Amino acid sequence: MKRLLAIELQKIWKNKASRVLTLAYFIILSFIALIASVKFNIGSFQLRIADEGIFNFPYIWHFNTYIAAILKFFLAIVIVSMMANEYSYGTLKQNLIDGLSKKEFVLSKFLTVFVFAASSTIFVFIMSLILGLCFSSYTEIGIIFSELEYLVAYFVKLLGFFSFCLFLGILVKRSAFALGFLLLWSILEGIARGILTFKVFPEGNTASYITMLFPLESMSNLIVEPFSRLSFVKTIGTQIGVTQIKDYSVHWYGILIVLAWTYLFMLFSYKLLQKRDL
């Protein structure tokens, strides 16, 4: 397994575009720290983001994983390009000629996806811990390490999303078309969600129970937006008469759904390679 992973990481590092995108992803992730210095002047009222508790433990785990997940498209481009280059440069066929089985090939890609997801999770954990220790009003050990399930959800979310991108790269063979297909799939899920919610099941929670099984929707549901948890947002909502009760928890069944899709995407990738004449 180490040999397979080493081969894939070497391919990525030797590709200039992939190397730049990977480095840019982690550099931009670190820019979350700059949010601490952002100030808004609204008339005589001054708002400093860091003073509103976004870096307080344990809220920081929720906030940072949600923001970091938005940047996952940088690595998605790397993964799709990684697969497209296998076809463009003929390395896939050469690897198979050199004795690498199709099962080992798919495994090597999955290991790369796993390493990307794990590295990003560890990076977010360290960055959040540092920011929290610097800005949080609560530094008790029990509070610091509570709600770490958001990191688990973040890792699973990236793993599922990158596996989907890998499958699209194998299916479409061209990075631009694969990313276009990803956008199209997202739009189709949105249309389906709208039809189910407003036309088919306008009452009750039936539509949400169905749409939570969609691949991209299931990944999105793992980490709910954190902004409405902030005290000043709640205060504004109360003043204008808006009270919203939202479940911010990370649910075990949501993680299982995304893991199931991850397994299916890797299985589909393997079956596709088995049937395809390379």
- Cα-based radius of gyration, to the nearest Å: 21 Å
- The order of strands across the largest sheet is 1-2
Number of distinct helices: 13
Largest sheet: 2 strands, antiparallel
Shape: globular
Write down the overall mean pLDDT: 84
**Structural class estimated from helices and strands:** mainly alpha
DSSP strand content = under 5%
DSSP, total strands: 2
Taken in chain order, the helices and strands follow as HHEEHHHHHHHHHHH
Summarize this, please?
The protein is mostly helical and 278 residues long. It contains 13 helices and two strands, in the order H-H-E-E-H-H-H-H-H-H-H-H-H-H-H. The longest helix has 34 residues, at 102-135.
Q: What is the topological layout?
A:
Elements lengths: L1 H13 L1 H15 L8 E4 L2 E4 L10 H12 L2 H16 L2 H7 L4 H34 L5 H4 L4 H24 L2 H26 L5 H6 L3 H7 L9 H9 L12 H24 L3
Antiparallel strand pairs: 1-2
Helix pairs in contact: 1-6, 2-4, 3-6, 3-8, 4-8, 4-9, 6-8, 6-13, 8-9, 8-11, 8-13, 11-13
Can you give a write-up of this model?
The chain has 13 helices and two strands. The protein has helices spanning 2-14, 16-30, 59-70, 73-88, 91-97, 102-135, 141-144, 149-172, 175-200, 206-211, 215-221, 231-239, 252-275, and strands at 39-42, 45-48. The relative contact order is 0.12. Helix 3 packs across helix 6 (102-135). Strands 1-2 form a two-stranded antiparallel sheet. With 278 residues, the protein is mostly helical.
